[in-house]
Design a protein that fits this description.
With 416 residues, the chain is α+β, with helices and mostly antiparallel strands. The protein has helices spanning 2-31, 57-62, 74-138, 156-205, 211-243, 253-271, 288-304, 355-358, 366-377, 408-415; strands spanning 38-40, 46-48, 249-252, 274-279, 283-286, 311-319, 322-329, 380-385, 391-396. Strands 4-6-7-9-8 form a 5-stranded mixed beta sheet, covered by helices on one side. Helix 4 (156-205) packs antiparallel against helix 5, helix 5 (211-243) runs parallel beside helix 9 and helix 7 (288-304) runs antiparallel to helix 9 (366-377). The radius of gyration is 46 Å and the shape is elongated.
Length: 416
């Protein structure tokens, strides 16, 4: 790269210098007289106009006046005119030739100098790139905390270094999140497995076990297995949401919310939670199955972490041409500084601060799945803690592209 830049600099310099010399040559050639004419003095003595008057000895000898002071003859005048023209042409040719030679020598000297200067300047320009390359070689998955920290003027190379630092920051956060996720998933999967194994071992070691005790142990083991199944299904849903969507399908967000509400109505009644819904037309694009999981997790979270006699409000519709889903629930007060943590995998509120929210069988993946699915759809996720207790979560989907040949009002009516 440095050699190519040097050759580019030298080539541009030679091209511009050659153009400058050609222009100078043409200007000088234009200023030099192409012809020399004779002039006659006041006393009738012939003279020469132009720089050839004092040029060579030939013109001076041929045009010198007669020694006796007589008037030159016509033959003498013609001979003088011819000699003057020849001398002027020779002088002009010599001047342009000398200018060409000296300019060529100067151009050659500066071409050699431009090679060295171009090599130095190319090295100076590429110095930040060498810094970035060296830093990239040093950084690996174990040293993503290092940064380039480019200094100097705010130019394209500094912008490249800053962009590389931002990329390293995102990779570092991704690797940390992945390691934390693997550790949390291992811990969460190990707990039901250990419980299941303990139940079976106790049942097998009991020499006085009855059919009733064995059936109870098997039922508890099956419950632990179901918990594992729910956890694995939640992990798969989370991974699918974080992977993104390959295709976007049209679906009605209000219909999805209505289906979820019907499925969770019995659970809400069992917990003594009142659920109200205000569902308007909300067409959106994405994966209907993931959107259903998003709505189900929000509604289940609002019911599960509510209080007896609490309320859950589910709203769906369109705002500024964008479909939205809002789930608001009552419950215990959530500290604002704990809100962002709840959207991370396997994160729950501290038992001392929100006991009911942390001890009702949740996996700690519900809101994390909601965040991943919203990101996969390019939707905006907004969560606000309520001063009276509880949480308000709103998901706003991107506007669907306009359908060709149908005005907006017709599309809305058809989707309703």
């Amino acid at each position: 790269m440095r050699l190519r830049l040097t050759l580019l600099y030298v080539g541009l310099f030679l091209a511009s210098a050659a153009c400058l010399l050609v222009i100078t040559y043409l200007l000088v050639a234009r200023q030099l007289p192409a012809t020399v004419t004779m002039r006659t003095g006041a006393n009738g003595t012939p003279g020469i106009s132009g720089q050839a008057a004092t040029g060579g000895t030939g013109a001076g000898t041929a045009c010198s006046p007669p020694a006796d002071g007589s008037v030159p003859t016509v033959q003498q005048m013609n001979a003088c005119q011819l000699a003057v023209q020849q001398e002027g042409a020779r002088l002009r040719s010599d001047t342009l030739e000398q200018l060409f030679i000296e300019s060529g020598v100067a151009l050659g000297i500066m071409a050699v100098a431009s090679v060295g200067l171009g090599w130095l300047m190319a090295g100076r320009v590429l110095s930040p790139l060498r810094t970035i390359t060296s830093a990239a070689r040093r950084i690996s998955a174990r040293s993503l905390h290092q940064r380039i920290g480019m200094t100097g003027p705010d130019d394209e190379l500094k912008e490249l270094g800053d962009t590389f630092d931002q990329l390293l920051g995102r990779l570092d956060a991704s690797f940390r999140a992945q390691r934390q996720f693997v550790a949390n998933a291992s811990h969460e999967l190990r707990t039901p497995l250990a419980r299941q194994r303990t139940l079976l071992e106790v049942a097998l070691r009991d020499k006085q076990a009855t059919n009733a005790s064995l059936r109870a142990a098997c039922a508890r083991a099956l419950a632990a297995g179901e918990q594992q199944e729910r956890l694995i299904a939640a992990l798969l849903t989370l991974a699918r949401g974080e992977r993104g969507l390959d295709a976007f399908e049209p679906f009605d967000l209000d219909a999805v919310a209505a289906g979820v509400l019907s499925a969770l109505r019995d659970d809400a009644d069992a917990r003594g939670v009142t659920v109200t819904a205000d569902l308007g037309a909300a067409p959106a694009l994405g994966d209907p199955r993931l959107a259903e999981r998003l709505a189900a997790n929000l509604a289940d979270n609002a019911i599960r972490y509510n209080e007896p006699g609490g309320r859950v409000e589910i709203t769906a519709g369109r705002r500024d041409g964008r479909a939205f889903l809002t789930v608001t629930n009552t419950g215990q007060v959530i500290p604002p500084d704990q809100l962002a943590r709840l959207f991370q995998p396997f994160q729950r509120l501290a038992p001392g601060r929100a006991g009911p929210a942390s001890g009702r069988g949740g996996l700690g993946l519900g809101l994390a799945i909601v965040s991943a699915i919203a990101a996969a759809h390019g939707a905006e996720l907004r969560a606000v803690t309520r001063a009276a207790g509880g949480l308000a979560v709103e998901v706003v989907f991107p506007p669907p592209p306009a359908e060709a040949g149908h005005p907006a009002a017709d599309r809305d009516a058809a989707l309703v």
